[in-house]
Every structure is written in C-alpha cells, then in structure tokens.
Amino acid sequence: MEATDIMIYSKYFIKFSAIIVFFGLLLSSFSFAQSQSPPTVGCGCSPPMPKRFLVFFKAKQADLNSGALTIIGEAADAAQHEKGAFLTVQGYTSSKHKTNADMLLSRRRADNVVDVLVADGVSKRQITVKTTGAFPLVRNAPKALIRYNRRAQIVIYAPTK
C-alpha cells in the first residue's frame, strides 16, 4: 500500500467518522427512551413525551420546500389529534455568530412554519414562537453537516390529565 492510498483512506475515514458523530448527536437530542422514569403528575401517571419535528432550510433562506411542507403537515395532524395540545416553534440559523440578521432569519423561518401550521388547521393560540438565531444542532462539524443547523423545530406538548 502506498502513501497516497493511505491518505485517501484516512480522508474518507475522517468524513465517515464525522457523519457517524453527527447522527449520534442528532439521535441523542431526541428522547426515544429514558434511563430513569419521568416525573409523575397529579394522577400518578407519567406525562406524555413531547413530539418533535424538524424542518430544514437552505442557507440564508426561510422558504419552505415540499419536504418541509410534508413535515409541517404531519406536525399539524399530530397537534390536532391531541386535544388541548400546545406547540412551540423555534427557528435557528447555522451562523457561528448571533447577529441581528441571524435573529431575523430564524424568526422568519419560525413564522413561515407557523403560517403553514395555522393554514393546516392548528389554532394560533396553541403556538408559541421562539427565536434563537445561531444554536447549533451539530457543533464543530464539516461544512457538509452544518446545513442541519438551519432549521425550525416544532415541539408538540400534550396536556397533562
């Protein structure tokens, strides 16, 4: 094996490792299972886990593509099946700096998602909008993975009974 072959293999290994780390971080940010039991509410039962939906955007844009509309539609359906549910829509950017432009862009992203949720039948009174700006889902990642930081997150909280 020559030195150039080793360099090529190590380059691909580093990229593959970064992808594995990214998906590990992505999966760890969502609660699929809990190692400890959740706190109980007045009835002695556990509160339901919130449902989370992620909508991704192109760089410096707040436009929704067909994939985003599908995800938002699924979130709207889930919210309508939960009587008394409330939602949080939070917009993010991929920049490393919290600038006014980032805050405005993350607000536009969240507002666009809210507009579609409302058009799909969710009451605006059920929705809280949060503007975050730059808050990475993926930290210190290769440029190919930074795009996952450009997102809006929809969280649906079912009421406790």
From TrEMBL:
UniProt entry tagged with the keyword Signal: yes
Matching Pfam families: OmpA (PF00691)
Cross-referenced SUPFAM superfamilies: OmpA-like (SSF103088)
Top-level lineage group: Bacteria
Keyword annotations from UniProtKB, A to Z: Membrane, Signal
Span of domain OmpA-like: 44-160
Annotated GO CC locations: membrane
Leader sequence segment: 1-33
Protein name (record): OmpA family protein
Organism of origin: Acidiphilium acidophilum
